[in-house]
Write a structure and sequence with these properties.
The chain is α/β, with parallel strands linked by helices and about 270 residues long. It has a single domain (about 30-50, about 85-260), classed as P-loop containing nucleotide triphosphate hydrolases (Rossmann fold, 3-Layer(aba) Sandwich). Helix content is about 40%, strand content about 25%. The chain has 10 helices and 10 strands. The strands form 2 sheets. Strands 6-7-8-3-9-10 form a 6-stranded mixed beta sheet, with helices on both faces. Strand 4 (about 60-65) and strand 5 (about 65) form a beta hairpin. Helix 4 packs across helix 5.
């Protein structure tokens, strides 16, 4: 199975603080890779760097062989057409209807006729179980439905890769599980590759083909879900089990998080 994403020695600094410290991994075609770790570990920074919202300071992010880390903005926009993004808060436009939100990337990046776009929107909403919701506004639907609309928009251009930022955040356990199953179903049906950032262990082990765990900007564990469960690394074991006692301390995590925002020394 070939790699569609290759991350090589990726480093990112915020001021004097190194947030990503020599990250290396690959994402294989057709798989779901979960990136997990506690608050402030660098996973959100990593995701934003992967999709080009943040500029890497060192290293490479190769997406289909093209270096996202050092591309011009025009080139980044070309690469972005090959993938979709599901944001943590869904990021729907409240002034637009559900159908208009899903249609947005089609109108922005294609010259398709309005009737063709309408048909594509209907198909994408059907795939996420929202047939007939085209005319509603985001404020008229639930949080779980908003995530599904955002997912329909993310797959509007038939991407080869979809990035997910905390897909279950803010959802009740049942709705979060529905989103997980939808993610797995679409990944298989549409032959996509999925990269999921999460700290929810139940979800992570449910959806992952492979997993990597970050701690203070470094990869401390990687492998299949079973290999992660059986890992001897104390950081991995503490995080997976949700234990209070271990090498990951609250003070250490808080300090790393605050420094990632403000830089320099932070008194705790």
């Amino acid at each position: 199975m070939s790699a569609v994403i290759q991350v090589e020695n990726l480093q990112k600094w915020f001021g004097t603080r190194k947030i990503l410290d020599g990250i290396n991994f690959e994402v294989r075609e057709g798989e779901t890779l979960v990136i997990m770790g506690g608050s402030g570990c660098g996973k959100s920074t990593l995701l934003r760097t992967l999709v080009g919202l943040l500029q890497a300071d060192e290293g490479k992010v190769l997406i289909f062989g093209e270096d996202m880390a050092h591309a011009s903005e025009d080139k980044k926009n070309e690469i972005r057409k090959k993938f979709g993004m599901l944001f943590q808060g869904a990021a729907l436009f409240n002034s637009l209807t559900v159908g208009e939100n899903v249609a947005l990337p089609l109108k922005e990046h294609t010259s398709l006729d309005e009737e063709i776009i309408r048909i594509i929107v209907k198909v994408k909403l059907e795939l996420v179980g929202l047939t007939g919701f085209e005319s509603l506004k985001p404020y008229q639907i639930s949080g779980g439905m908003k995530k599904r609309v955002a997912l329909a928009r993310a797959i509007a251009l038939d991407p080869k890769i979809v990035f997910y930022d905390e897909p279950g955040a803010g959802l009740d356990p049942i709705t979060a599980r529905v989103i997980d199953h939808l993610l797995m179903d679409l990944t298989k049906k549409l032959r996509m590759t999925s990269v999921v950032v999460t700290h929810e262990m139940n979800s992570a082990f449910r959806i992952a083909d492979r997993m990597i765990m970050l701690h203070q900007g470094k990869v401390v564990g990687s492998g299949s879900p079973q290999e992660i469960k059986e890992s001897k690394d104390p950081y991995v074991q503490q995080f997976v089990r949700g234990e209070i006692n271990g090498p990951i301390s609250f003070k250490e995590t808080k300090e790393h998080y605050l420094k990632s925002i403000f830089g320099g020394d932070v008194g705790l």
